[in-house]
Every structure is written in structure tokens, then in C-alpha cells.
Amino acid sequence: MKNIQAAYQGRRCLVLMLLLSILVTHASAQWGQIPSTENSAYTVVVNDGHYLYTGTYIGGLRRTSDSGRTWEAVNNGLPDSSIFVTMYAEPSLLLLGTGKGAYRSTDNGETWRVIADSVTRGKTVHQFCRHGRFVFMAADSGLARSANDGIDWTQLKVPILGPQGYICLAGGGDYLLTGMQGDGVYRSLDSGVTWTLSSVQKGGELIYSLCNGEGFSLAAGGTGATLYRSSDKGITWSDIDTSLHRLTSLIVSLKVLGNRSVLGATEVGVILSTDKGDSWKRINEGLPFNGHVSVVSIDVTEDEVLIATYVAGCFRRPLSELITPPSGVEDATAGAAATRLGQSIPNPTSGEVLIPYSLAASGHVTIALYNSLLQQVAIVVDAEEPSGPHTARLEASALPPGAYYYRLHAGTVNLTRQMVIVR
Q1: Of 248, 251, 320, 398, which one has the fewest beta carbons inside 10 Å?
Q2: Residue 100 pLDDT exceeds 80
Q3: d(CA 116, CA 101)
Q4: What pLDDT digit, counting tens, does each position of 359-378 carry?
Q5: 40 to 36, 303, 308, 329: CA distances (angstroms)
Q6: For residue 318, pLDDT beyond 80
Q7: pLDDT higher than threshold 90 for residue 247
Q8: Could you give the CA distance from residue 83 to residue 74 in angstroms, rounded to a whole number?
Q9: DSSP states of 125-192 as a string?
Q10: What is the DSSP letter of 337?
């Protein structure tokens, strides 16, 4: 009898553990509601590293430092009824675009001041963008830039001002892009002093969103979910036949994750591409109304993705669910089995790191380090090396804490491991 009871209890524990595993896996692989944001029309959600901020369609900005368990209003200096359109966040700088101008805060939202009043007074401010030492602003009144973190602004002279001004910006590397209605995309190589019109020209089409990735740029049209890609820093563009019309009719915002992956905010949830825009899929797990909610804002941090919706509040999702590290699969070649990449020592680390590896044959070797957004932050090894065991050294004391990936490339072999930097 005792044996039967023990077997029953064992099976019962096994079933419970299996169910718990399924529930935990299901619960984690989806969007989660940010507490106290349900059933409201939010237009902005950002994280500046200290606080998470949310703002509604008709004004009213709040912040939380405990993931949404408690909130406080931070509206001192903001208008009572202006529509909140966009928000830009750095650890010591917040910029807010509204339907009637722009505002700035350097104390985590405690107080706000009007900025660029002569440029944007009474006009809608659509987007802010950091590019080098300048911050740029796109508005119905045109483009402006600031060299002192948003205190003073200079209006830029772009050849044509469309009927709705400039509504999107993308900075990356040595070039800056801006989009408008009816005239395509403009490109600048001198931080906005001079601009040239690129080849994206669809008569009257609204270029609604832009993004710059590693070696590519994407531009989304405002009608029919038309998507264009450039591989030459925005000089020439080509249509991407992605059949996006089956997923959405409007891409409100584009965000690059790492080197190849791109997120899109749409009127029916969130879409994801892992191949520079060639193909897309919906990632609406956990969103209400079967994902048919209008997403108007996306923010990406080191650990998660945040979205704001018009009717259902704000949501978050772990970044690790949406991107994968650089490929760690060895190609089937003669020497692949003898090429190895060891675990970094120590792990976690706060200072110098040793990376052991072994090569099956002599040749050129690279080991690159990527952050959690899959952005390359360092080259550890880039040299011709003989076969056999090796050890690379990396000084990690200057890198921000977090999860990192290091990738070895030798011939046709690509291997990846993870390390963690702590303070």
C-alpha cells in the first residue's frame, strides 16, 4: 500500500511540475500588462534607466521606479490638455513632443520647461533623435537641432516643407535621414546642415517611419504598408516585397534590435523581422483583442521592449524572447569539430576576462563582443593565428553591466557564448 501511495505521489508531483513548467513557459513568452495602465489611451512609454514613464493621449505623465507597482504624476510645467505625441529619454535628459510644442526636463520629470518655442509654438512635434553630439527634432514646422542637449535650438533649412512637415528621423553612423509627406526621404552627411533627396519618391505618399541598422536602412510608407530598404546609407532605395498588406496597413514606428532584427508598431499589434525586413511575423501573444490593438510607441531597453497602445494601455516583453544571439552553429566542415570556443573566465566578471579557444587550422580569426541588443561593442581578436589552443584577453571594466555575447569566426566556423558583466 505504501508503495502504491508513493508511486501515486510521485506521479502527482511529476504532473504538477510539468503543468507548472508549461504555465511558466506560456506566461513568459508573451506581452505582459504594465500595472495600472489598463484600458487607457497611452501614446508614450519610455525608460530612462531610472524611471519608467507613461503618458496618455490627452496629457498626464506618470513615472514609476518599481515596475508599475506605484506611480506618481510628473506634470509640473506641462500643459493641461495638449496631446502627447512622442517622448525621448536619456539618463539625464527627457524631451516631450506634444500637439502644441516641445518640453524638456533634466530632473527625471520633476519639472518641465518649454523649448524651441519660436520654432514649434502651436505645432505638433513628432520625433526626437540623437545623432552624434546633436539632438534633432522633427515637427510640422520643420526640422531643428540642438548642440546642448535641447536647451537651444536652430531651425534647419531643408529644401521642401511638406503639408505635414517632417515626422520621422533616423540617425546612424555618419548619416542622418528624415521623412515627410509627398516628397520621400532626405539625407544629410553633415549633421543636418545640407540635405539631398533620395530615390524614395511615391507621389503624395507619407514616409511615416525610418530606422538605421547595421549596413541597412528601412523606410515605411504610410499607405499600404509599403516598405523600402537602402544598403548604401540612404542614397538609393528599393521596394521590399514582404506581403506586409496581409499583416498591416500602417507601420507607425520602426525599431532596430541588433544588426538584423527590426520591430514594427502597427495598427494591429507588433510585427518582427529577423532578416532586415525581408519577412515579417506578428508577435502579439498576450495582447488583448487577439492582438488587434493600435500600437503607437515602442521603446527598447537593455532587457525589454515596451509598447504603448491607444485602447489597452502599456505592455512589456523580455528582449530575449524577440532576438537570438549570433549563430553558434558550426558548419559541417572538415576541421569544425576541433575548433572550440570556451567559457569566459571568470563569469560573471567586473574586470579582465580570459576567453579560451582552439583552432583546427591556421587562418584568420575574429572574436567580437555584442551587447544584449546584439550591437557590436568590441573586437577582441582580429588576426592570423596558427592552429591549436589560444587565450584572448578582454578588459571589461569600462563596459556597462549586463549580458553580452562573444562570437568566434574562423573560416566557415561560427561559435557563440555568453558572458555577464557585473559591478
Answers
A1: 398
A2: yes
A3: 8
A4: 888 889 999 998 877 788 99
A5: 9, 25, 10, 45
A6: yes
A7: no
A8: 16
A9: EEEEEEETTEEEEEETTEEEEESSTTSS-EE---S---TT-EEEEEEETTEEEEEEBTTEEEEESSTT
A10: G
